[in-house]
Specification:
Number of helices: 5
Structural class: alpha+beta
Distance between the termini: 24 Å
Oligomer: single chain
Strand order of the largest sheet: 7-11-10-9-6-8
Strand content: 25-35%
Helix content: 10-25%
Largest sheet: 6 strands, mixed
Order of helices and strands: EHHEEEEHEHEEEEHE
Shape: globular
Number of strands: 11
Length: 170
């Protein structure tokens, strides 16, 4: 893991940094999330604040996570894809064909378009928005609980932070 921050510190992040990031991921997303997001042996760039705290973790395919001041991660699309491949539907919200192009562009997900959701999703959780057939469309923050997403016909279900963009780029 390399340090892409502005603090001028050594180019390689220490093993305790990686272990700490993995611990946060496992706590926030469940066991195995840390390994999925930050696998051993992969070259990752850690962008740091001027105080030295990790702010973003970036891999070759893009931003995996940003590390918020509240101690929680916000997902990038690359991180969402890694979690989705590993966590078997946890922290996911599924939509159908009708809203796919809008969500890919970064538009929010509304409850009436949700066709499936992980039962454990709570408001303010980081979630991966997927097409009902399984591919990642976006990442964002849940605004409703899983039950609310399934029951409500109106209202925002997910505040999308980043859309996956053009499907041809995948």
């Amino acid at each position: 893991m390399t340090d892409g921050g502005s603090t001028g510190s050594a180019p390689d992040a220490s093993a305790p940094d990686l272990a700490s990031l993995r611990t946060v991921a496992d706590y926030q997303f469940g066991a195995g999330a840390g390994e999925a997001l930050f696998p051993l042996g992969e070259e990752l760039t850690v962008r740091r604040s001027t105080g030295g705290r990790p702010r973003q973790v970036v891999a070759d395919e893009g931003r995996l996570v940003s590390y918020g001041v509240d101690g929680r991660f916000t997902l990038g699309v690359a991180g969402g894809r890694r979690l989705h491949e590993t966590l078997d539907g946890e922290y996911t919200v599924a939509v159908g064909d009708e809203s796919e192009p809008f969500v890919r562009e970064g538009k929010n997900v509304f409850a009436k378009f949700v066709v499936g959701v992980d039962d454990a999703v709570r408001p303010r959780d980081e979630v991966v928005v997927v097409h009902e057939t399984g591919y990642v469309l976006a990442v964002g923050r849940a605004e409703l609980s899983a039950a609310g997403m399934e029951e409500f016909e109106t209202g925002m279900a997910v505040k999308v932070r980043e859309g996956a963009g053009d499907p041809a780029s995948e």
